[in-house]
Every structure is written in structure tokens, then in C-alpha cells.
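Subject: for your reference before the review

Hello V.,

The reviewers asked for a structural picture of the protein, and I figured it would be easier to keep everything in one thread rather than splitting it across files. Below is the amino acid sequence we used in the manuscript, unchanged from the supplementary table.
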Amino acid sequence: MFDQPEPARPSLSAPMMLMAISVAGVLLSFGICGIAAITPEAVTSIFSGTGAVVFGLGVLVMVVSVLWFFLAMIVGALRR
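And here is what came back from the structure prediction:
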């Protein structure tokens, strides 16, 4: 009687989704470092270290996703 709609497929490709997640990680690291700036010194090192690690991972994942995106574009162009 009622047709079940098919689940929507994500509109972003995998490299673009990875890039979006990495940008969110970089923004999260800004928040963590902002918390480190307003907390007492005993807790600051924990937050600043965590923020630096999250920022580094975010940038690394962003570089990898950009390379993956361009590699996928080149492979797609060569297949035609």
C-alpha cells in the first residue's frame, strides 16, 4: 500500500566527505585551543597539546583528501 522510500545516498563523494570532516576537526582544534587560553595553567598544557594534535591530524587528513580528490579526477579523465 505505502511504498517505502529508498534511503537517500550522500551527495558528497568520499574525498569531499573526508575534507569536510577534516575542516570540522580543524575548527574543533580552534575551540580546544581557545579553552586552553582561558583555563588555569595546570590544565592548559593538556588542552593545548590536545588542540595541537587535533589540528595536525585535521591538516594531514585535509592534504590527503585533496590528493585523493585530484587523483580520482585524473583517473576519471584517463578512463574516458
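For the response letter, the relevant points are probably these. DSSP finds two helices and no strands in the chain. The chain has a mean pLDDT of 86.

Happy to draft the paragraph if you're swamped.

O.
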